[in-house]
Each structure stands twice: as C-alpha cells, then as structure tokens.
Amino acid sequence: MAEFDVETLFRSLDTDRANVVWKWKLLEELKQAGLRADDPRVERAVDWSVKSSAPFEPGQPEWLDLEQFRSVVREPVIWRALQGQLSMPPSEFAEFTQGIERIYADLQDERSGEVAQYIPTLRNADPDRFGIAVCTADGQVFQIGDANVGFSVQSTSKPFSYAMALEERGAADVHQWVGQEQSGGTFNDPRLSLDAGGKPQNPMINAGAMATLALVESDQDVSERFAKVEQTWAKMMGTPPGFDHRTFLAERDTGHGNRGLASLMAAQDMLNVDPKDPDGPRKAAEFYFAVCSLELDAQRLAAAGATLANGGVAPYSGERVFSQETAGRVLAVMGHSGMYNDSGQFADQVGLPAKSGVSGNVMMVVPEKRLAVVVFSPRLDAAGNSVRGVEVCKRLVNEYGLHPYKGLGADREVARLALGGVARVGGPAGHHKAAAPATTSVTRAGGLQM
Description:
Order of helices and strands: HEHHEHHHHEEEHHHHEHHHEHHHEEEHH
Oligomer: single chain
Largest sheet: 5 strands, antiparallel
Shape: globular
Number of helices: 19
Strand order of the largest sheet: 4-3-10-9-8
Strand content: 5-15%
Helix content: 40-55%
C-alpha cells in the first residue's frame, strides 16, 4: 500500500483535525463495512496498536496516531474494508442487511409448523426462537434476533462430513461408498436410502452421512476421529464448536433406524468398518450421532457456510480448509438433495445450495456473492425444514434477484427492446457479439428424526 494512500486515509478519518484517529471512529467505519469489533483480525490489529502507546486514563477515548494507524492497516482485511474492496462494498452490504431486517420483522408473527418431537431436547425447544446471520468470504457479519443461541447442528453437519471424506479419500474412492443422486424419499427411509447393492443414494441422507463419516480418519480411534471433525469445524468458524451431550444421549437411545441402516450397509460390504467387529455398524451410527450433536449458533454456522462459498477458504483466517473441487462437489449435492424431501421444490423456488437440520437451522450458500445466510427457527414444516428458514431464503432470492436461473437473458431482452426488437449487442450486421454478463451487484427485484 502506498504511503500517500495511508496518509490520505488517515486524514479522511481524522475528522477533528487532531492528528489522531479515534478508536471508536475506526471501529464504526469497519462496522459499516461489515467487520465487527470482536472480529479476531480487527481485535488483534487495533488492540495491539492502541496498547503500544502510553496508557490511557480510565474513561479516556482511545486513539491512534499516524504510525499506529499505519500498523493497523497492515492487516489486509482492514485495509480492504476501508477501501471498500471486501466481498460486498459497504453500500451493498447495508442494502442487503436492511432487506434481512425487513424480512425478519415481517416473519415475527409466523407461527406455522411445530418443533421436532422425537427426542426431548428438540421437543422442548422454544418454538419462537428466531435468528438470522450472514457471513461473507471476507468475514463481513450481520446478525439479528437469536443468532447467538446455541443449537445442535443435526443434518447440517452432512455437507461438511462429505467434504472431509472427499479431502481425505478423493471423489473416486468416496463415491464407491456413497452415490450422488436424489433418493426419491425421506432422509431416513430404509426402502429408498440404499440402492440394490446397498450403497446410500447420496451424502445428504442419514445412510449417506454415516457412510461418509466412516471414511474420515478410519484408521484412528474414535476419539481422534471426533477431534478431526471438531478441528475442521473450528478452522471454518474461527472458534471450536460445543457439544450437546443430552442430544447425543437421546439420539443414541432412539436411533434404532439409523443403526439398522448401518447394519444393512455393512451386510453388503458398503460401510467402511472392520468386518470382524460385530459392533462396527453400531459404532458408525454413534459417531454420526456425535457429529450431529455438535453445538453451534447461526453466526458460527454462517462462517462455515461462507467457507464453502469461498471455495473452501475460511473467512476469518484465510486458511484453505477444503479444495475448490471439494467445495464445488459439496454445493452441487446440496443443490439437489440438501432440503430433505422438499429439495426439488426448494431448487425451483430458491435455486441455491442449502442444507437444513431438524433443530430448526437452514444454511443457504450464495456462491455468486461469496456469502452464506443461516436462519434458526425451530418450527418445522412436514418435510422437516424450518418454516421461517425456508421463507427467509425465498424472500431474499426474490427481493434481490439471486435465483441463478430465473433472470437468464434479462440484460439481452432489455437491449432488444431498447433497439426496437433487434437483439443485437454490437458489431457489423451478421456478426453479433455475446451479451455482456449480468451485473453481480445486489439489486432489489421487488419485492422428524435426523
């Protein structure tokens, strides 16, 4: 970064002409860009620089001189934020989050659906909880409502379990054990979950999730395998997940159907367990129950989703967690099988990859914008998806024109009408150039057991 640019930026923030930038002023600018004060990158850069100066008196506003400011903006995300060069420019981010605020307010009175009934921790959940969180590839964050309330991740763990298996084994090996097609039934239907050879239809149903998890660190003890899963989640989110012990115990005590699916797969050598271990299928099912019992909140789950939106790179650390190929494969399967038995309808109405869990969470990834939106609201529809969660996704896509297919050719049609019906973009007669790609800025278009 040029020294002149740093000084110019410093002067623009020194609104009092005191040769200092107030810490609160800098944090407010970063907030407008979508970076929170508790973002680890912001905390690390700003607090270290402030503390390097003489101690401030209690209650005295803290400030940065030019040298300290220069040190702060060496943090790349801060420099890009102040230059308006993050995934979403401040004005676009503000417009998008204002839309979320409107949608959140509109859905406060939505009371249809009911919480999952099959275990106490889900059955006793507060049905009126409602939170929305957004995280971009650069770690721009917005949240509203109960976005910091913890919940068990449930089936929204499945895309990430699939990603871990792909990273370790590669696609060719993984897909010897699990397919890539819609099952045509519910996520736990024993008749439709497996093909004739005992292979699970895809990684987003229970059988497929058990099959993919059976491939993760399979030569290690279960404690080491679970540590690998926790570490992967921590890399994506910037903080480690919690664990809901009550949910795990309840899942283990009631998960007879899942153990049965594991046994069916093992009987046809389609589950990667020790064939000499009679408890192998049970252990595979319990490992799956444990992963589904990881405890997150909407804001942290959004960071995990942003990792997929960013081609496998975590938003806060910039660390590559998954390859681009892995992220693309995961999003593709989410696109056709991520929303239980309503996946086809969701693909038609929303058109974006998403995954839901019966605790009431929905994670939608917007690859074009390099962001993820997570909704937490425990009331479920008949398919097991959060009622409010699905509605938030629909409204965001409709309001901001985010459906990847329903706006195809819109720019070309505008050009055709402007030219009196002649669909030419340029060049001499008979040599039509390709239409320019649609703009990527946000533009409002109008308004069960796991």
